[in-house]
Design a protein that fits this description.
This protein has about 475 residues and is mostly helical. The protein has one domain (about 5-465). About 85% of the residues lie in helices and about 0% in strands. It has helices at about 5-60, 60-70, 75-105, 110-120, 125, 130-140, 140-165, 170-190, 200-225, 230-235, 240-255, 255-270, 275-315, 320-335, 340-345, 350-375, 380-385, 390-405, 410-420, 425, 430-440, 440-465. Helix 15 (about 340-345) packs across helix 18. It is globular, with a radius of gyration of 22 Å.
Amino acid sequence: MNLKTQVMRGGAYLVLRQGLGVFISLAGVMLVTKVIGPEKYGLYAATISIFLYLQMLSQLGIEVYLVRREGEEELGVYHQAFTLLLLQAFTGMLLAFLALPLIESWVNIQGFRPVAQVLFLGLPVVLLNQVPMARLERNLDYKRVALIELLGQLVYYVIAFPMAFRGAGVWALVAGWWLQQVQTLALLYWSAGYRPRFAWNWVLVKQMLGYSIGFSTSVWVWQLRTLINPLLVGRYAGAEAVGYVALAIRIIDILSFVKTATWRISIATLGRLQGDRERLRRAVTEGMGLQILALGPLLVVVSWALPVLIPLVFGDRWLPVVAIYPYIALSNLTNSMFNMHSSTLYVLRRNWEVTVFHIVYMALFVGAAFVLLPRLGLVGYGWAEVATLASYIVIHFYLVRDIGSPDYRLAGLWCGTFGIALFAYQLGWWVVLGLVVVALLPSTQQKLRDYIKSIKGVKQEKSSEA
């Protein structure tokens, strides 16, 4: 099986998993949030956001090192990664418990401490998933990865919804999360056929940390954005506002399943093109267009439907989500256009260049949030998201310096048109005319035909191999 077929099959499995996950997540989020309400959901969202950042700090990019590592697969490398992750997990958990009083005083949300304590205890379980997951992804075995993740998602809601319906509140979500992590851990080790052992090799440790610290620093800075909601929105607007922002982000994350799948597989596949700058540049150009076309229509349709869907599905208590959604969706859509930029720079080991971009992004986000949230309330968070768009100039500059400039013309036109269409209620329904005009452009029609031919070609290749 050639690389193109492996990549397309792996991508298809991930997209299928994410697509099925969309229905599961939408159903689960609709049922659970309607039962527990904005305040309890905001408490869970604030706590899980802080936990996920703790996870990013603790795992040090070890999984990416294992996937990205050149050469043949060696069990000794996996054993060393397992040992290192275990040490990092217990260290991170200890530091989190020591810092908990300070975090609690800043967040200032009632009930935060006991929920955080239970989640922090799950850090070793989550980090030890990384080794078997990396083994499966390195072998492009995304079929098993997709099935395991889908089963975990099902378990989460199967546990969470009945408990929420019986009045468990935030603890329904915590219990669902815990069982999801335990099941995923067991299935990953079984599927990967990996049996962990303790090991210590200073040469390997230095190699892992030498690569991963640069990568991790970039991720640490980037993931600071997930703390804006619990730490700033929570402090200035309260738990309910955290719930509104979290639900809007959750809806957009669900709709962004293609973007998520593409980023995951790009690290494993772009690494095989790193010696050919021209092919990398073409891959970035194609990736931008595909992601905008895959994500833009979904975000726009949901933006138009939200004023009807939110009261109907979630209840009137959740109506403020409608006001914040377009701003967050615009930020996410723009990020999807530059998604391949960061993947390419990571593959080329330009980790610090991505870190600089993330620092600029976060400086704009935090600065705008500090200024606008106390003055504008919930919409201030939305404008802070919009302020981050200026930061993409930085990552464009670095990509051009390393491989040359991709072709932005068509993808940029699509992104701008979809971005404006997100604000139909604010700007007027004339935005639909812009979508129609761009869709009828000869360049758009030709590009769509090219994409369809590529998909058909892969299907024919699969059929001939079968």
